[in-house]
């Protein structure tokens, strides 16, 4: 079983890593190629490209200029510990055991606009480049054109080693970097809905955190059989058979 999650814009490169183990991104060559193009952009260019403030434009200009390989534990950090958004709050990897990190390294893959696909313990340096950014590489007009076939092939080679089941816990923006027609395996797409005004709805903040919670549930129980996912019950969610259709599995919470 392979789990896909999105990265986060919020990063933590200050606190000390809780594990000494690390790996290197498989698409570092491509990341270098993208960084080379990003370096050409001024702070103002970056602000306009990403619709971010002048301050963030300056910050990411500095990040792009100082980004360099090789990555070491001194100048980079493991992806699963560097990202700190809602998904990663649910995942709570800073409290993983060494065994949890081993299972996560085998089962979780993080999609990224700069790095393509990351294993949890892959070292990364600070960046901001969302997959939906209209930033063309190799004559393309956006990152999807650059990454889609590369990411889909990488996932297929991973699925051959696993059980052939892909659990899509990524956002729509990031999952669009995968070509479902080319995936050689079963795709399960869980959705998380909360009861609001008498109806079950996807509430972004809760749904993101729940994706992280389910990732943690899979890691800590070392789940390989997708049917076992239906036992997910963290934070009051439960599998809702009525609302689920085919491989679109819905988990609801009544509060």
Helical residue percent?
25-40%
Mean pLDDT: 96
| Topology, number of strands | 11
**What are the secondary-structure elements, in order, as H or E?**
EHHHEHHHEEEHEHEEEHEE
Q: How many DSSP helices?
A: 9
Specify the overall morphology: globular
How would you sum up the major sheet?
Answer: 5 strands, mixed
Give the number of domains: 1
Query: Which strand-content bin applies to the residues?
Result: 5-15%
Multimerization status: single chain
Q: Structural class of the secondary structure composition? A: alpha/beta
Low-confidence stretches: none
The span between the termini is 30 Å
Rg, please? 18 Å
Query: Main sheet: which strands, in order across?
Result: 4-3-1-6-7
Commentary on this structure:
- The protein is α/β, with parallel strands linked by helices and 255 residues long.
- It has one domain (2-253).
- Helix 2 packs across helix 3.
- The chain contains nine helices and eleven strands.
Short précis:
The protein has nine helices and eleven strands. It has helices at 28-38, 43-50, 54-66, 79-82, 86-91, 98-107, 143-161, 172-175, 204-220; strands at residues 2-5, 77-78, 108-112, 116-118, 123-124, 165-168, 186-188, 191-196, 199-201, 238-239, 250-253. A hairpin with a 3-residue loop joins strand 3 and strand 4.
Q: Tags for this entry?
A:
255 residues; alpha/beta; 36% helix; globular
């Amino acid at each position: 079983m392979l789990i896909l999650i999105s990265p986060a814009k919020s990063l933590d490169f200050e606190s000390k890593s809780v594990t000494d183990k690390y790996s290197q991104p498989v698409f570092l060559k491509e990341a270098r190629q993208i960084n080379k193009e990003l370096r050409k952009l001024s702070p103002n260019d970056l602000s306009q490209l990403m619709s971010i403030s002048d301050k963030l434009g300056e910050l990411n200009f500095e990040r792009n200029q100082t980004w360099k390989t090789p990555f070491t534990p001194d100048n980079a950090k493991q992806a699963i510990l560097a990202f700190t958004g809602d998904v990663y709050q649910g995942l709570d990897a800073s409290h993983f055991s060494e065994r949890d990190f081993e299972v996560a390294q085998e089962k979780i893959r993080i999609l990224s606009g700069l790095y393509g696909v990351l294993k949890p313990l892959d070292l990364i340096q600070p960046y901001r480049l969302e997959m939906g950014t209209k930033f063309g590489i190799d004559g393309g007009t956006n990152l999807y054109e650059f990454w889609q076939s590369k990411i889909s092939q990488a996932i297929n080679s991973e699925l051959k080693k696993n059980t052939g089941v892909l659990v899509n816990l990524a956002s729509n923006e990031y999952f669009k970097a995968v070509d479902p027609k080319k995936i050689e395996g079963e795709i399960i797409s869980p959705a998380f809905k909360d009861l609001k005004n008498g109806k079950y709805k996807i509430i972004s903040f809760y749904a993101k955190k729940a994706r992280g919670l389910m990732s943690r549930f899979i890691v800590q129980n070392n789940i390989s059989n997708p049917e076992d996912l239906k036992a997910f019950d963290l934070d009051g969610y439960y599998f809702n058979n009525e609302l689920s259709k085919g491989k679109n599995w819905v988990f609801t919470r009544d509060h």
